[in-house]
Specification:
The protein is α/β, with parallel strands linked by helices. The protein is built from 15 helices and 23 strands. About 40% of the residues lie in helices and about 20% in strands.
């Protein structure tokens, strides 16, 4: 392990990565990163300042304006990024252990799901950038064609719920298309981003191409990363409120923003659905990741005729979920990220009770059986609420499901679209005509039919309404991370 992240325990020191080297803050403050399983300190992190963010931007700017990275061919960059992906594969166990300790992610999920996806992000975008075609329109007298030069310096702000996977969802395309990057990981989860930066540098990524600054929002770190005129693109994943502030800051210099923000996705189960599919997939859609997913199916609408049978099976499966230590192979749901977030989640359950909701299962923090030091909340199912209630409308970001009946297809679609969010939607039906009708009218960036969170990295990903602006993935990432340029050449 190289300088920057020590090996274990509360003595682990986490520093910035600026210009290819570990860097201390210009200030002398630090903050702790803690394991949500038991609230133990697992590292001390240098607390970034505005000056640190500006240093990182200067490094990225110099690497873009003077360095080799943007001048390399896409195939040359592909070779480097494949080497970085190979390094991720070689250190998969280490990265998974760090991710679990820092975020509470299930170890088997981090090891077999998220770390392979990190490597896939790198390889996919490296290959896509190298193989993507350009448009050419010869008409005899002129030849017109399109160039896709890199945009420049990219500020990437990533969340804590899938730390390294979502960081590389931003970093990989930005780098593949020739940009340089300043990454700010969430302060709750700094470990894997730091280690990834070390591995990328060792694998051959030129100095200054990827910079990492730790710290908080406001004027400390995020302000300069979103308001500096030397930044050419901003990509953000996080809450809608924070996204709105970032867009306001970016507007000062008309810096383009791609923002994937909050969600309150509808999950609709029709009476012709195969419950052997709909029940377990609906369980996964709300309780995977302890419900800390922006696209979670947290508004569950079930056609009235099958509501009793569905609820019986759904509740029974929820109660069978093993909540506990994320390193235990038998655990199916780990902790929430921190005490403040646990208090928020429980506050919404209390709000649901005051709004007339009935809690079928769960509904209180788990504080026994070895979980008393951590931030554990059980799978919670609430009925008896209207779709207009605050509990059903506001993002909880935890393992809390509201279940609401409906009668007709038109009503189901109206309920799904009666939300300020528009990130995702989930639909269970065996009527393919209905599936196509619903998908066409659903106001959401992604609609899953008889499945949940299947991903093809060529497809657009993002939301509408207060769930975000812009799309990333495949050609949509190319359009965002480049400056498409039209060239017209007279032939005769």
């Amino acid at each position: 392990m190289t300088q920057g992240t020590e090996t274990a325990g509360k003595d682990r020191q986490v520093r910035h990565l600026i210009g290819g080297r570990a860097a201390d803050s210009t200030g002398d403050e630090t903050f702790e990163t803690r394991n949500p399983h038991d609230n133990s300190v697992i590292g001390t992190v240098t607390r970034g300042t505005a000056a640190d963010a500006e240093r990182a931007i200067t490094s990225a700017r110099k690497a873009f304006d003077e360095g080799p990275w943007p001048k390399m061919t896409p195939r040359e960059r592909r070779t480097v990024l494949h080497d970085v992906a190979d390094a991720v594969d070689a250190h998969r166990e280490e990265l998974a252990q760090l991710e679990t300790a820092d975020s509470g992610k299930l170890l088997h999920q981090a090891l077999h799901g998220e770390m392979p996806r990190v490597a896939q992000n790198l390889r996919f975008f490296a290959d896509y950038a190298a193989m993507a075609g350009n448009e050419a329109y010869p008409d005899g007298a002129t030849l017109s064609y399109t160039l896709y030069p890199p945009a420049g310096v990219v500020s990437a702000i990533s969340p804590w719920n899938a730390p390294l996977m979502l960081a590389t969802w931003k970093v990989a395309p930005a780098l593949a298309f020739g940009n340089t990057v300043v990454l700010k990981p969430a302060p709750q989860t700094p470990l894997t981003a730091t280690r990834f930066g070390e591995l990328a540098t060792a694998a051959g990524l030129p100095d200054g191409v990827l910079n990492i600054v730790h710290g908080f929002g406001g004027d400390e770190v995020a302000g300069p990363l979103t308001g500096d005129p030397r930044v050419d693109r901003i990509t953000f994943t996080g809450s809608s409120a924070t996204g709105a502030r970032i867009m306001a800051s970016a507007a000062t210099h008309l810096t383009p923003v791609s923002a994937e923000m909050g969600g309150k996705s509808a999950n609709i189960v029709f009476d012709d659905a195969d419950l052997d599919v709909a029940v377990p997939e609906s369980i996964r859609a709300i309780f995977a990741g302890s419900g800390q997913m922006c696209f979670a199916g947290s508004r569950l609408f079930v056609q009235r005729g099958i509501l009793p049978a569905f609820l019986e099976r759904f509740t029974a499966e929820a109660e069978r979920i093993t909540v506990g230590d994320p390193k235990n192979q038998k655990t199916a749901m780990g902790p929430l990220i921190e005490q403040r977030h646990l208090d928020k989640v429980h506050g919404y359950v209390e709000l649901a009770r005051s709004e007339g909701g009935s809690v079928l299962t769960g509904g209180s923090p788990l504080t026994t059986g070895g979980l008393e030091r951590g931030f554990y909340y059980p799978p919670t199912i609430i009925t008896g609420l209207a779709n207009e209630s605050r509990t059903a409308q506001e993002e909880i970001f935890g393992p809390v499901e509201t279940v609401i009946p409906f009668d007709t297809e038109q009503e189901a679609l109206h309920l799904a679209n009666s939300s300020p969010y528009g990130l995702g939607g989930i639909l269970f039906t065996t009527d393919l005509d209905r599936a196509h009708r619903m998908a066409a009218a659903w106001q959401a960036g992604t609609v899953w039919v008889n499945c949940f969170f299947e991903r093809d990295l060529r497809l657009p990903f993002g939301g509408q309404g207060i769930s975000g602006i812009g799309r990333e993935g495949g050609q949509h990432s190319r359009e965002f991370f480049t400056e498409p340029r039209a060239v017209m050449l007279r032939l005769r």
